[in-house]
Design a protein that fits this description.
Length: 471
C-alpha cells in the first residue's frame, strides 16, 4: 500500500519501506503462482512429440491437446476476480495450488488422450487464477515507490518457471537416453516431465500460509485491525495508519463490488479503459511469444536440428527470457512502462522479420547454414525484446491501470482475453507452420508493428501513481 502521493509520475516520493526484505518475500511468495503459470505452460514443450507418437495423432489434434489448457486458463482468469472478492486473495492462491497439484498427477498418469486433455484444462484453470491473483495481490500490498519492480516479480517468476521446466525436461530426456518415450522409474519420460510439477505446486500452497491477506480485502470485509497490522508490516509503523485506512476506505466507498456490467459503456461495448487492457493482453500474445515456449523443440526439429539440441536451444531461450525480464525489472520504474513497450515492439518486429526471412529458405526439413544461424539468433533476440518489455509491462499495466471500482473485474476480463489470444496462436501454429512457416512469422511481425501505434495512441503511463489515483 502507499503513502499519499503526488501525481508527478516520479517514483521517489516515498522513503524506502522499513521492512523491504519482508515485502520482497511476500511478493515472491505470491509470484510463486507465476512460477507455476510458466512451468505448467511450458512443460508441455518437452512432451509434444511423445504425445503425437503415443496416441498417433496429427497436427490438428495435437494442437488442440496443447492449447486446450488455455481454455481453462481463460475461464479461471475470468472468474478469479469475483472469487477473490468473496473469499480473499490468499484462499484463491490455495485453491490454485490444489488444482495445480491434481493436474500434475492426472497429466502424468492419463489412460487416454481425452483424460490428458481434461487434466490440462484443470491445470489451465489454475493458471488463469494465478495470472489474475498474483498481480492484483502484489499491487495491493506494495508501496508505490517500488510497486513496479515488485509487480515485475510475477513475470520474473513466469520466466523462471519456463526455464526450470525446460531444464527439468532436458535432464529427464538425458536420463531417458534422448528418447521422450524412454522409461524412467516406470514412467515414460514425457509423463515424468508433466508429473514433476507436483513439487512447486505444493510449495506454492505452503507459502500461501506464510503471507498476509491483502489490506484492501481485509477492509472490505470489516477487519480493520488486521488491515492496519498488514499496513504497518509492509509500510512501517511510523506511517499514519488511520490516515492510510481512511484513504483506502474513501476510495472503496466510491466504488462497489466490481462486476461485469460495471465494465460496460453501453449494452454491447466495454469502457475505453477496458478495451485498452484487452488490447494490451491480446497484442502480448499475437506476436507469437508462446510458440517459442510451447513448440520450440518441435520447431527446431522441423528444420533439421536433432532432439537433444532442440531441447538445449529451448533452455537457452528460457535463459535469455530471464535476462530480459531482469532488465525490465531494473528499468520499469526508471524509464516507465510505455517506453519499454515501444522499445520491445520495435525489437520484436525486427527479430520476427528476420525469422520470417530465414524460414523462407526452408527446403524439406532443413535450413541452409546461414539461414539456420540467423533463425536461431533472431529467435533469441525476439525473446529478449519481449521479456524486457511486453512480458513485464503488460502485467504491471493490468495491475495498475484500472480504477478501483472496476479493477478486479476488468483485470479478469483482460487476462481472459489474453488466454483466448494465447489459445488462438497455440492452436493455429502447427497448421500454419505446415502451410507456410515463413508466412506464419510474417503474421507475427505485423502484429509487433501494429502494437507500436496502439501504445502511442491509447496507452497512458502509470509509473509512480497510487492505485487510488487511477480512479
Amino acid at each position: 500500500m502507499t503513502s499519499t502521493a503526488q501525481a508527478s509520475g516520479t517514483d521517489d516520493r516515498a522513503p524506502a519501506p522499513v521492512h523491504l526484505g519482508h515485502i520482497i518475500f511476500i511478493a515472491a511468495a505470491a509470484a510463486m503462482g507465476g512460477f507455476l503459470f510458466g512451468y505448467d505452460s511450458s512443460v508441455i514443450n518437452g512432451a509434444v512429440e511423445a504425445i503425437r507418437d503415443k496416441y498417433g495423432i496429427g497436427s490438428g489434434t495435437l494442437a488442440q491437446v496443447v492449447a486446450i489448457a488455455l481454455i481453462g486458463s481463460a475461464i479461471g482468469a475470468a472468474t478469479a476476480g469475483r472469487i477473490a472478492d468473496r473469499i480473499g486473495r490468499i484462499r484463491c492462491m490455495q485453491i490454485a495450488s490444489v488444482l495445480f497439484t491434481i493436474s500434475a498427477v492426472g497429466s502424468a498418469l492419463p489412460f487416454a488422450l481425452w483424460e490428458l486433455a481434461f487434466w490440462r484444462i484443470v491445470g489451465g484453470f489454475a493458471i488463469g487464477m494465478a495470472s489474475v491473483i498474483g498481480p492484483a495481490y502484489i499491487a495491493e500490498v506494495s508501496p508505490p515507490a517500488i510497486r513496479g519492480r515488485l509487480a515485475s516479480f510475477q513475470q520474473a517468476a513466469i520466466v523462471l518457471g519456463i526455464a526450470v521446466s525446460q531444464l527439468v525436461n532436458y535432464g529427464i530426456l538425458q536420463g531417458a537416453n534422448g528418447d521422450q518415450r524412454g522409461k524412467i522409474i516406470g514412467l515414460e519420460a514425457w509423463q515424468l516431465m508433466l508429473g514433476v510439477m507436483v513439487v512447486p505446486a505444493v510449495v506454492y500452497g505452503l507459502l500461501s500460509f506464510a503471507i498476509p491477506e491483502s489490506p484492501r480485502f481485509l477492509l472490505a470485509v470489516g477487519r480493520t485491525a488486521d488491515a492496519k497490522a498488514v499496513l504497518a508490516d509492509v509500510e512501517g509503523k511510523d506511517i499514519d495508519l488511520d490516515a492510510r485506512v481512511t484513504e483506502i476506505q474513501t476510495a472503496m466507498h466510491r466504488e462497489h463490488k466490481s462486476k461485469f456490467t460495471d465494465l460496460l459503456r453501453t449494452r454491447f461495448s466495454f469502457l475505453s479503459i477496458v478495451w485498452i487492457g484487452i488490447g494490451l493482453s491480446v497484442f502480448q500474445q499475437l506476436v507469437g511469444i508462446n510458440v517459442a515456449f510451447y513448440y520450440s523443440a518441435t520447431l527446431w526439429q522441423s528444420v533439421g536440428i536433432d532432439p537433444s539440441s532442440s531441447f538445449l536451444y529451448s533452455f537457452t531461450t528460457s535463459i535469455v527470457n530471464i535476462i530480459g525480464t531482469a532488465i525490465a525489472m531494473v528499468f520499469v520504474d526508471r524509464i516507465g512502462r510505455r517506453p519499454l513497450a515501444l522499445i520491445g515492439s520495435s525489437g520484436m518486429a525486427v527479430a520476427l522479420a528476420l525469422e520470417a526471412w530465414a524460414f523462407s529458405s526452408k527446403h524439406g526439413s532443413t535450413l541452409p547454414s546461414a539461414q539456420g544461424t540467423v533463425a536461431l539468433v533472431a529467435a533469441h533476440v525476439f525473446v529478449l525484446f519481449f521479456a524486457l518489455s511486453w512480458g513485464v509491462v503488460v502485467w504491471v499495466f493490468l495491475g495498475e491501470m484500472f480504477p478501483n471500482r472496476i479493477r478486479a473485474a476488468a483485470l479478469g476480463v483482460a487476462a481472459s482475453a489474453q488466454w483466448i489470444a494465447n489459445w488462438a496462436i497455440t492452436a493455429s501454429f502447427p497448421t500454419l507452420a505446415d502451410w507456410n512457416l515463413s508466412g506464419t512469422y510474417v503474421i507475427y511481425t505485423c502484429f509487433a508493428v501494429l502494437s507500436i501505434p496502439f501504445v502511442l495512441i491509447f496507452v497512458k503511463e502509470t509509473k509512480g501513481k497510487t492505485l487510488e489515483e487511477m480512479g
